[in-house]
From TrEMBL:
It comes from Exiguobacterium acetylicum. The lineage of its organism: Bacteria, Bacillati, Bacillota, Bacilli, Bacillales. NCBIfam families: pcaJ_scoB_fam. PROSITE patterns: COA_TRANSF_2. It comes from the Bacteria. The keyword Nucleotide-binding does not apply. SMART domains: CoA_trans. This is 3-oxoacid CoA-transferase subunit B. Signal peptide: none annotated.
Amino acid sequence: MKTTREIIIERALQEIEDGMYVNLGIGIPTLIANAIPDDMHVMLQSENGLLGIGPYPLDHEVDADEINAGKETVTAQSGASYFDSAESFAMIRGGHIDLAILGGMEVDQNGDLANWMIPGKMVKGMGGAMDLVNGAKRVVIIMEHVNKHGESKVKQACTLPLTGRAVVNRLITDRAVFDFTPDGMVLIETLNGHTVEDIKQVTEARFTVSPELERVTVGE
């Protein structure tokens, strides 16, 4: 049986299309790099100045100077390029990133995102998230549906400091997929046997159900 993290990654992979320029956020999103099929040509961009990130390195491939924005060692694809942070953020702010897949702490029914800090805990800053949610052509958030206490992370209104307002295009959790439209938050998929009623019970946000709702099985 797949773990919740594996379910999220496999569903998120469906958002990526051949030829895209994609930024993967710190945390769960970075694991998507290892799941991209070899026959799919995708250029992964990192805020610290690398375009063409490959899978995580094997032990004999580790180069301490080759890292992503989360300071994890990575590999570089054939044709990769290196540049400074100014150039990297010019790509993001200039609208040249097709898709940003980011992690989330909270997402609310308005498409607001909180993903960078919990008050009272030491943080270094939000990194490139603020720029990515405004500069990328499409923003997909991936996260578990509830926290470790069983409380919904899909809120009527975010309670944590915001990364951006009304910036989320799609939310993928381990239980469901939602789109954010001019008419509000819409449930478009239930995952791996979860019912609409199941989703309502663990979702604080108000949402409607798409008439084309799909019941999807991921990773089995």
